[in-house]
Amino acid sequence: MTRPTDAFTLLELLVVIAIIGILAAIGIGSYEGFNNRAANAAQLVSAQLLQIRVDAMGRTAATRVRLDQGKLVVQRASSCNSPDTEWQAASSLNLSPPDRVAFASSSPTIPWIVCFNARGLADKTTTLSISDNRNRVRTISIYLSGAVEVS
Q1: CB-neighbour burial class of residue 53 (10 A; exposed 0-12, middle 13-18, buried 19+)
Q2: pLDDT tens profile 76-120
Q3: Over the stretch 1-38, which tens digit does the pLDDT of each residue have?
Q4: In a domain, 2, yes or no
Q5: 27 assigned to some structural domain
Q6: Please, which of 45, 85, 87, 113 could form a disulfide with 66 given CB 3.0 to 4.6 Å?
Q7: Other beta carbons less than 10 A from residue 118's beta carbon
Q8: Looking at residue 90, which CATH number applies to its domain?
């Protein structure tokens, strides 16, 4: 009885599967370097700041964002000039940095706070720096008009 010779043996299939597994492991490791955590976080924070601005206009109340222990904390009050005792937490809009990403103020001695009034205008022009574990940095600029820009 003759055996057909045009088929793969089990050993050949196992070798091919092992080679594919090794190449996939190398490829996934290389792909990790393409992920720019700072840029991704900057886009996320930019979208969140615009959402907070829209929230301020929708509620016709001031909404401020402050950097507190590495997190962006959102609070509401009747106006941007309200005393600290009048600000109430809007925790549904708070934003923690993603893994291996940190938020930083342009001035470490002055607390980073920006307030959007009921018309969506910011109380000052300010910047927020976002850095990742590979020292890549993105800057978010917030302008008096309420515009948010990532650079």
Answers
A1: buried
A2: 999 999 998 999 998 888 888 888 888 888 777 788 899 999 999
A3: 566 667 778 888 899 999 999 888 887 766 666 678 88
A4: no
A5: no
A6: 113
A7: 16
A8: 3.55.40.10
